[in-house]
Amino acid sequence: MHNNFKIVCPVDFSECSLNAIEYAAKLGEKYGASLIILHVPNMEDYHKLASKEVGAADPYGFIQKKLRNLVHAVSEESIPKGLKSCSFEIKEGEIVDTILEFADDNKVDLIVMGTEGVNDFKKKFVGTRSSTLIEKANIDVMLIPRKVFFKAPRKFVYATDYHEEDKLAIQKVVELAGFFESEIDLVHVSSKSGIIDKLMHQSMISEITPFIKSEKVAFVLKSYRDLPGLGLENYLITAKGDMLITLSTKKSWFDQLFAQNLSKKMSYFINKPLFVIKNP
């Protein structure tokens, strides 16, 4: 059990943010964490929600009531199973910056956030907040797509590009997998197939194996003619992975994808949770 592990889960009462709360609570049970449900006010949304409720004349009070009900439901379900505490906070400001400032001020270890994924509003840029959050964050971020409900993960797919930091990041992945007795596939996707890639892959296996305390880890090298991100999503589907995990540092593969804007596309169409390790 971790000391003072903190998870923050931003919520706007959309379906995907409520699904994210469920993931955050289940992870909080495993980590013995304090869960903070964070709401960044939007008065237009307040009035929309309030208009659906009879007698909801005070939108701000209405939202506080909704948050208290969420905290009560999570506490009743998850505190007996290991969650340390659950509370809510309301902070005004620009959404992404407010979430990150709150996380920094409160020494949060993990942000769990819903993302719209594939939906009819893609042209209106719904979902780009999650990409911006990952890009700016200094702490780990887990994105939960719309229509994805919690289930105990059977397999994690960890995407590697042969960086030294993988040795630390994989320990986080092994710990997370251990909570659920899950398998881990360490996958490198290359746009070409050749002897150099195979040699690098073998070298990575020999270097990273001493850092892995699990017998449920498989090392996979895949060649894919298209973009690496598409190859990863293809592997995630064919291998029946339950969550994609990747390391994000200034020199990592994932940040190169950001430079190509591919990661933003992935945040739209990926249909599995995405866990981005920012602090290995």
Automatic annotation (TrEMBL):
Domain of life of the source: Bacteria
Start and end residues of each UspA domain: 6-145
Family: Belongs to the universal stress protein A family.
Name used for this protein in its record: Universal stress protein
Organism: Belliella alkalica
